[in-house]
Amino acid sequence: MIKQFRIYLSFLLLLISSAFSNAEIPCEPFVITVKNSATGEPVPLTELKTINKISYLTDSRGKIAFLEPGLMDAGKVFFYVEAPHGYIDLEKDGFGYRGVSLSPSPGEKTEFTLAPDPNTADSTEYSKLEHYRLKNNYVASSDAYLPFEITVRDSETGRGVPLVQLKTEQGLTYHTDSAGRIAFFEPGLMSEKIFFHIDSYGYKSAAGGGKTLIPKPNGNAVIYLDRINIAERLYRITGGGIYRHSVLLGRDVPLEKPLLAGKVLGQDTVAMTEYRGRYFWLWGDTDRPSYPLGNFKTSSAVSLLQGSGGLSPDEGINLDYFTNSSGFSKQMFPHPKGQVVWMNTLASVQGKTGERLIASYGVIKGKAKGEKGIAVFNDSKQEFETLTVFQDEHNIVLSGQAGKRNGYVYVNCPYPAARIKAELEAFANPQDYEAYTCLMPGTAFEGEKSQVERDENGNIVWGWKKNASPLNDNQWQKLVETGKASPKEAWNRLTDAKTGKKVQLAFGSAGYNADKDCWIMTGNQKWGDSFLGEIWIAASENPEGPWRKAKKIATHDASGNLEDYTFYNVSYHPEFNSRGNIYFEGTYVTTYTSNKNPTPRYDYNQIMYRLDLSDPRLEDIWPQE
Fold first, then answer.
1. Burial of residue 354 (number of CB atoms within 10 Å: 0-12, 13-18, 19+)
2. 526 partner at 20 to 30 Å CA-CA among 60, 113, 267, 476?
3. 438 CA to centre of own chain
4. What's the pTM value of the predicted model, to 2 decimals?
5. Alpha-carbon span 45 to 38, nearest angstrom
6. pLDDT at residue 16, as a whole number
7. How many CA atoms are closer than 13 Å to the CA of 436, on its beta-carbon side?
8. What is the DSSP string of 226-272?
9. Which domains can be identified in the chain, with CATH numbers?
C-alpha cells in the first residue's frame, strides 16, 4: 500500500508540474554545417563529439543543430571530428587530436570543410542510425521544438532515476538526467509508436526489454523500474548538463548551476572534508569544454553545510569552484616541478594558528615524478603548498580516503590501517605515522624479505606501530605465499556475508556512523562481476578492524544493452549521515573496461548514491552486540 501511495503521489506531482511548467526551449540551437572543400556540397554523416562524449551526426544537408544550453556562450568548445566514408580526416594538432574549436551561441551558425578522398571506393553500407539521420534532418529553430517528456522512476521510492538508457530501433540513444527525465524530440518519430529498449545499472530491465511509447509534442510518460541494487542512485555531482533535459522541459531543479559549474565537464577521485564551516572538495584530473587537455594539478570547490544555506544530500550539491581568469577550475597545487599532481587524504587538523587543511599528494608526471608528500592549504593564496616530502625511510606513504575520529585521522589503504594525530605538526613528521600491521616497527613491506613480528610463543603480532607499512590484500597474500604467515593469521578476512566467498578490495573509504555505533566502509571490489564497478559495504567496531563480512550494494556489470562500467575510488561521506542513511560516490568511467561506448555527459564524473542502513539485506554485516 505504501509503495502504491508513493507511486500515486509522484504521478500527481508530475501532473501538477506539467500544468505549471513552461516547456519553451531556453535557447536557440547552434547550427554547424560541414561542406566539401572542393565542391561546397554538404557532407552528411560527419561525426562531431564534445569532450564529454556528446555525439552528433550531420544530416543530409551536412548540418547538426547543437543544443547544449550549458555550453552555449561558454566560450570555445572543442569537437572531435571523424570524417565519413569518402573524406579525409582532419590533420592532428600538436597534441595528436583531430577536431575543431567552435564558439556555440544560441541562434548562430558556423561551418567548416572536409577534403574528399579521391582514393575511396563508393560504399552504401550504413548503420541504422546513419540511415535514420540521412532521412531525418535536424530542426534548427526553437519555434518547432515541442519535446515529449519521459520520466523514469524508482518503483519503490518514486524518485527519478538518473543514468537510465533508452534506445530506439533506429539507434538513437538517450540517458535520463539527474531527475530521471529525457526531453525527447525527433521530428521524424513524433506521434509514432516507438519501442524503447530500457536499461540501467542496478535495475531490472522493463518487461519485454523495454516499452512502446507514442511521443506526442508536449506530452509525457512515466516509466517505473524495479531496483536490484540495495543502494539508490541519486544524481550526478559533477560535469556538464546534470539537469539538461529538465531545463529543456522547463522543470524546476535544485542546483543553482544545473548545466555547467566552473566550466567542468568531467573529473575523478573525490575527497571531501568539513573545513572552516564549509565542505571542501578536491578532485583529480579535470576536463574542460575548450580542449581535451584540462587541469592536471587538482581541482577544488566548496559547498555550504546543510542548515547554513546548503542543500540536503538527498537533493544535490551546489559546488562553488575555485577558478582561474577564464572561469575554468584552477590548479590547486601548482607544484613547480610537477605537470600532473594528484591529491587525496584530505583532512582538517589543528595547527598553531587554528584549523588547517592538509592533503597527501603525488607527482605523476614532470621533473619531480615520483615525489609524494603532504601539502597544506594556504587560505590567502587559495592553493596548496608543500608541507613535507616523503623519503625512502618513511614506510607509511599516505594516499587514500581519510576519516577523523577521537583525535586521529585514519587513512584507508584500502582498510583504514594508517593513523596520524589530527595535528599539523604530526603530519609534518612521517616517521611518527602509525599503521595497524603485523610487520616490525620501522620496517617496510619487502615481499619475502618482510620482517613479520611474532611474540615469544611464535604468535603473529598485530598492532599500531610507528613507521611500519600497512598491508593491502595482495601484500598479505604475498606473505602467505612466501611462508611468512598463514591464512588463518589474517587480521582482515573480508568475505561475502551470504556466500562466504572472499572479497578483495582495490579501494576503500571508511568513517564512524553514530546510528550503528560502528565504523562503516564502502569499497571497490577487484575482479568482481565487473572489474572495478562492484561496490560493497562492511562494518567493524574499530577502524583497524577486523573487517570480516561484506554485502554488495551497487553494481555496474553488463546487462541488457549495457556494457561493463567502472565506478572507482568510491568515497563514503560520514558528514552526510542522516536518518539512518549514508551517502557515497565514485567515479563513473570506462577506464579498465573494454567498453567503447562511454555514456554522454556522465562518463568520467562523480555520481552520488544513498543507502538505507535499516535494509534487512544488510543485517548480517553488523558487528555482534
1. exposed
2. 267
3. 35
4. 0.94
5. 18
6. 37
7. 19
8. -B-SSSEEEEE-SSS-TTHHHHHTT---S-SSSS-STT--EE---EE
9. 30-135 (2.60.40.1120), 148-236 (2.60.40.1120), 491-624 (no CATH)
- Whether residue 231 contacts residue 609, with contact meaning beta carbons closer than 8 Å, is answered with yes
Can you tell me the distance from the alpha carbon of 591 to that of 531, in angstroms, rounded to the nearest whole number?
10
- Output the pLDDT for position 448: 95
First-to-last CA distance in the chain?
Answer: 34
Task: Establish whether the linkage from the previous residue to 546 is cis, with ω within 30° of 0.
Answer: yes
Q: What share of the chain is helix, strand, coil (3-state, %, to 5)?
A: 10, 35, 50
Residue with cell 542522516: 578
Report the pLDDT value the prediction gives residue 121, as an integer from 0 to 100: 79
pLDDT of residue 625: 53
- CA–CA separation, 223 vs 559, rounded Å? 19
Count of Cβ atoms closer than 10 Å to residue 463 Cβ: 14
Q: Regarding beta strands 148-154 and 220-225, do their DSSP bridges make them parallel or antiparallel, or are they unpaired?
A: parallel
Q: Per the structure block, which three cell numbers stand in for 161?
A: 532515476
What is the pLDDT, as a whole number, of residue 489?
Answer: 97
Task: Give yes or no for a contact between 38 and 115, defined as CB atoms under 8 angstroms apart.
Answer: yes
Q: Which of 561, 564, 562 lies closest to 532 in space, CA to CA? A: 564
**String of b and e for 387-397 (b: at least 16 CB within 10 Å)?**
beebeeebbbb
As a residue count, the chain comes to 625
**Cell 540511415 belongs to residue:** 131
Q: Taking phi first (over 0 means left), then psi (-120 to 50 degrees means alpha), and beta for anything else, what does residue 128 get?
A: alpha
Burial of 478-496, coded b for 16+ CB within 10 Å and e otherwise, reads: bbeeeebbeeebbbbbbeb
- The confidence score (pLDDT) of residue 11 equals 39
The residue assigned the cell 539521420 is: 133
User: Residue ranges of the chain with pLDDT lower than 70?
Assistant: 1-26, 625
- Distance from C-alpha of 168 to C-alpha of 197, rounded to nearest angstrom: 6
Angstrom distance (rounded) from CA 247 to CA 239:
15
Distance CA 211, CA 89 (A): 39
Q: Whole-angstrom Cα distance, residue 361 to residue 505?
A: 22
- Integer Rg of the chain from CA: 26
Q: Using alpha carbons, select from 400, 436, 403 the residue that is nearest to residue 422.
A: 403
Written as one string, the DSSP assignment of 487-505 is GGG-S---EETTT--B--E
